[in-house]
Amino acid sequence: MDPLDFIRNQFAEKDVPSTAPPSSSPTAPSPPLAHQDSPRTPKGEACSICDLGSTRSEPSRLQSVYVGPNELHVIPFTDRGVRVKIHFLNEAEYRGYIPCNGDVCDACRVGYSAMDWILLPVYNPDAAAVQVLQLSIAKRPGALLPQLAPLINSGQPLLAMLQQRPDKTYSVNSMPLTHGDDAGESSIVDFLAKMNAGQVDLASVLNHLSNEDLRAIPAIAAKLKRKGFI
Ligand SMILES: [Zn+2]
After folding, report:
1. Domain annotation covers residue 11
2. 145 occurs within a structural domain
3. Which of 14, 45, 125, 163 could form a disulfide with 71 if both were Cys (CB 3.0 to 4.6 A apart)?
4. How much distance in Å is there from the Cα of 226 to the middle of ligand 1?
5. Measured in angstroms, how far is the CA atom of residue 207 from the centroid of ligand 1?
6. How many angstroms does the Cα of residue 84 sit away from the middle of ligand 1?
7. CA–CA separation, 64 and 81 (whole Å)
8. Chain centroid offset of residue 219 CA
9. Is the pTM of the predicted complex or chain greater than 0.70?
10. Residues 136, 103: contact at Cβ < 8 Å?
11. pLDDT tens string for the chain (230 positions)?
């Protein structure tokens, strides 16, 4: 199948309920021939050099990607993401985004602001991999989501060029994919098969800190103590 047709088909199928069985793909990888059992397997644990040498048997961890000051190129292929509530920690012991721990979240208890984000899988041609784009649900002028959504909804195979401006607004441009471009077909097929099988946790790109982890940070523990939580 032509890579561009493939991308078009992904958008054409976006209204299919997520409970639908994954569509079969003619490009789905077939098992290596060396998997066939040998009647003369010697003593010891049978193994396949193809399995041992393959990176497929140990899938790499999903990576997240942000839109920052340097232009980011991504190929959207789905509008199916997840919405998460996150905190930003800027402590000496930990600096970064973490998911909120919900109703009993210690970060919420000490008054750390929580932001709503969408985690959206996209293909990053520079990493040659499906990655998880983290974007705010903010819809103010110049925000990323209201500019990116029309590109995704267009259903056209395209390269999106995303960049954060110095004033923290975003520029969103696009160009059509042309034949010969890396459209990430095989990576996307593999990813969608796993996502449809419920094997993908988009939120796994975030570092999770439990309340116990949070209480190990002195500034947070001190605030919790002052407010009577510990
Ligand atoms: Zn929280």
Report:
1. no
2. yes
3. 163
4. 18
5. 14
6. 11
7. 13
8. 31
9. yes
10. no
11. 554 555 556 555 544 333 333 333 333 333 333 333 334 444 565 655 545 444 444 456 899 999 999 999 999 999 999 999 999 999 999 999 999 999 999 999 999 999 999 999 999 999 999 999 999 999 999 999 999 999 998 888 899 999 999 999 999 999 999 877 888 999 999 999 999 999 999 999 999 999 999 999 999 999 999 999 99
